[in-house]
Design goal:
heterotrimer, A alpha/beta (176), B alpha/beta (354), C alpha/beta (251), A: 176 residues, alpha/beta, Pyruvate-ferredoxin Oxidoreductase, domain 3, six-stranded mixed beta sheet, 6 strands, 39% helix, 22% strand, B: 354 residues, Rossmann fold, 2 domains, five-stranded mixed beta sheet, 12 helices, 15 strands, 40% helix
């Protein structure tokens, strides 16, 4: 079993971090993983993306050209990558920032107003983690013990206060 | 649960170098390898080491030459255009038999080129790092774990043979994160009685030098150096075979190209095509023997490269042109897709026809 | 009683320099200073590319031969390999230091790298047979300026001490010459100070030595010594261009 994720959005939305979280969670769950960001001027130009592969087997190419799961945090990301998603795959869209609907009918689509939910709940920087919660839920990976262990790896000890709020954000997404 | 950590390839190189006992790093910023410098800048002052941002690539490699002369483990890193600038220093390092590690996280060229991944410095690394007759040990990692392990290996081989080891990676390998275990075994550096670190008034002066104006003497130095290279070709070749036991088609690929090829091979096998891969880990010394052996078994070879066809020449040499070798490539920062490689495999399986 | 002896820091190898060339004098001064300071066992010298390329054969301390112009970068590496113990000097000519190696010169000075540089300025490329140097004087005839250096075509000479003195970095910059007994004594004082500064951790110290090249200047040794007085010193005035510690002490 191999799942290929593509996270995409604006710089500053925590795109690379959410990808890193999913990769680290794979590592926590004893899977093989890879994480590959786009790099260069386009990072500074505003869009950020990263491909994550979580697999039971050794990861071959780390390049995610046909994601099984697309996380689109803004409209340009959906425009750019909608057609790339593998048939039968999933698209998670931040519906606060993306007004249009997904045109494909061979993929499962989840609209989450993550940016609005994040603001309403007092953690405006965690829209990314709300979507990650939903992604974990829908891909059958929502497991509190593993989430807790993973968060402890990706959040430095100095920022331990961020632990609970990240969990809350993910729970919010999972329940949406 | 493993004690592995997720790390970028570039960071894994830096941490592995520190584990290998390297306490001196000199470099100049260039994408896509700047994480190495950033990591060193953070860590070195805390462990009594020295990170110094040089005024140029040229200065950086000469600072490396200075520390190597003084007998300590030292490294620099750069990306393609910067390695060209280091070419002078690499030649002097070779001429003076100084050990060091040089990392090239390749990007597309020639000229300023681009910043996306490439393998188009293969010739430069394996055949023409600078002027004069010399070789560098060239190591080609294909995972973040190998980035770390081959960094340590690079220091060890450099010290063992008193020469430059080059870690030849690419933008993808440098930027990607994978789990890596850093419990690396490190052989201690050997004694360096040749080092120019002060006579302490206890020995005759040592001289670090590549000048030799008497032709006969310079010739003898070159012959001796190539005897050493022959030893390396005998002892230090590293490669990995994948599904070669019954293979009828053999892919040659290193680094990121081998990762892509692996996917294509798995798919081709599902379709019943007998294809395997020889992945050189040392690009110099090139694993000629396994390719030569494979030439008696397979129908043809495919060299999968992020270049206009550079390693393919070594594959042809190794196989003595016994079987056709075709090229499957993307360049300029593009990476072949598994589908493209699969297509090349299918074509080869049909005897070259589509 | 010994009244004259070879410094221990010089080997027995005979110099290859031309008759009347002042490299020999400067080598000796450096070696005397190394002896007097008792630092031979922890000194590492860096030879340039140029006439003094084989300086590594003449000094008894450990020596490194650097690529053309790169000696300050190599010295940076050696110094930083063991900053507490290593005493590091470079010995460079004008083409090496002020042309192809200008970046290494300026940046090692800007970093106040704790090294000593002996800079031989003889206004010509000697080893390659007398081409125009970055320090060749306006109007000076050389193999590559056969009609005299035309400043409208190839610009003006570089005044290294003056230029570096504008930087915050360097500790000590002085220009001396070795064309008379008195000037040789002054040169030795400057060289000794440049090494002492390093021992005391004060930082980048450069001594520019106006030197002769009778062979490529096409002069007798005696005329060459006089040419320094007549032509070079007016363009390159002798003196201290920077001495941070002395300035601080209000001297």
């Amino acid at each position: 079993m191999t799942t290929k994720y593509l996270f995409s959005g604006f710089g500053g939305q925590g795109i690379l971090f959410s990808g890193k979280f999913v990769a680290y969670k794979g590592l926590t769950d004893d899977k093989q993983v890879s994480w590959l960001p786009s790099y260069g001027p386009e990072m500074r130009g505003g869009t950020a993306s990263c491909g994550v592969i979580v697999s039971d087997e050794q990861v071959g190419s780390p390049i995610v050209a046909k994601p099984d799961v697309l996380i689109a945090m803004n409209l340009p990301s959906l425009d750019r990558y909608e057609s790339a998603v593998a048939p039968g795959g999933m698209i998670f869209a931040d519906s606060t920032l993306i007004e249009r609907k997904v045109e494909r009918d061979d993929v499962k689509v989840f609209y989450i107003p993550a940016t609005a939910l994040a603001s309403e709940n007092g953690f405006p920087t965690l829209a990314n983690m709300i979507i990650v919660g939903k992604v974990l839920k829908e891909t059958g990976n929502y497991d509190e013990a593993s989430i807790d262990a993973t968060l402890r790896k990706v959040i430095s000890a100095k920022r331990a206060d961020m632990l609970e709020v990240n969990k809350k954000a993910m729970a919010l997404g999972a329940e949406y | 649960m493993s004690d592995k950590v997720l790390m970028k390839g570039n960071e894994a190189i830096a941490e592995a170098a520190i584990i290998a006992g390297c306490r001196h790093y000199f470099g100049y910023p260039i994408t896509p390898q700047t994480e190495i410098a950033a990591y060193m800048a953070k860590r070195m002052p805390k462990i009594g080491g020295c990170f110094l941002q040089a005024e140029s690539e040229i200065a950086a490699i000469n600072m490396v030459y200075g520390v190597a002369s003084a007998g300590k483990r030292v490294m620099t890193s750069s990306s393609s255009p910067g390695i060209s600038l280091k070419g002078e220093g690499l030649s002097y390092m070779a001429g003076a038999d100084m050990p060091c590690l040089v990392v090239n996280v390749q990007r597309g060229g020639p000229g300023l080129g681009g910043i996306q991944p490439s393998q188009s410095d293969y010739f430069q690394a394996t055949k023409a790092g600078g002027h004069g007759d010399f070789r560098m040990i060239v190591l080609a990692p294909a995972s973040v774990q190998e980035m770390a392990e081959l960094t340590v290996k690079g220091f060890e081989l450099a010290d063992k043979y008193r020469m430059t080891s080059m870690l030849l990676a690419d933008g993808t390998m440098g930027q990607m994160m994978e789990p890596v275990a850093l419990d690396l075994e490190v052989k201690p550096a050997p004694e360096k009685p040749w080092a120019t670190n002060g006579t302490k008034m206890q020995r005759a002066h040592n001289i670090t030098n590549s000048l030799s104006l008497v032709a006969e003497e310079l010739e003898a130095l070159n012959f001796a150096r190539y005897e050493k290279y022959a030893e390396i070709e005998k002892n230090e070749v590293m490669y990995e075979e994948y599904m070669m036991d019954d293979a009828e088609i053999c892919i040659a690929a290193f680094g990121i190209a081998s990762r892509v090829s692996r996917n294509a091979i798995d798919e081709a096998r599902r379709q019943g095509i007998k294809v395997g891969m020889i992945r050189p880990i040392t690009l110099w010394p090139f694993p000629a023997a396994p390719f030569k052996a494979a030439a008696d078994k397979v129908k043809s070879f495919i060299s999968v490269e992020l270049s206009m066809g550079q390693m393919i020449e070594d594959v042809r040499l190794a196989t003595e042109c016994k079987k056709p070798v075709t090229l499957c490539n993307r360049v300029g920062g593009m990476i072949p897709s598994p589908e493209q490689v699969l297509e090349a495999i299918i074509k080869a399986n049909n005897g070259g026809a589509n | 009683m010994v009244v004259f002896d070879k410094p221990h820091a010089l080997t027995d190898a005979p110099f290859h320099y031309c008759p009347g060339c002042t490299h020999g004098i400067v080598h000796r001064l450096v070696a005397e200073v190394i002896d007097e300071l008792g630092i031979e066992g922890r000194t590492i010298g860096i030879a340039p590319v140029g006439c003094s390329v084989m300086a590594y054969n003449y000094f008894n301390c450990d020596m490194i031969e650097a690529a053309h112009g790169r000696a300050p970068a190599v010295a940076t590496g050696v110094k930083r390999a063991d900053p507490e113990n290593n005493i590091v000097f470079t010995y460079q000519g004008d083409g090496d230091l002020a042309s192809i190696g200008m970046a290494e010169t300026v940046h090692s000075a800007a970093r106040n790298e704790n090294i000593t540089i002996i800079f031989i300025n003889n206004a010509i490329y000697g080893m390659t047979g007398g081409q125009m140097a970055p320090t060749s004087l306006p109007g000076q005839v050389t193999q590559t300026s056969p009609y005299g250096r035309d400043v409208n075509h190839c610009g003006y000479p570089v005044k290294v001490c003056e230029m570096l003195s504008e930087l915050e970095g360097p500790e000590y910059l002085e220009r001396v010459t070795v064309n008379s007994v008195k000037n040789i004594r002054n040169a030795k004082k400057a060289i000794k100070k440049a090494f002492t500064n390093q021992i005391e951790g004060k930082g980048f110290s450069l001594v520019e030595v106006l030197s002769t090249c009778p062979t490529n200047w096409g002069m007798t040794p005696a005329d060459a010594l006089k040419w320094i007085d007549d032509k070079m010193i007016p363009y390159y005035p002798l003196g201290v261009y920077k001495d941070r510690s002395a300035d601080k002490e209000g001297k």
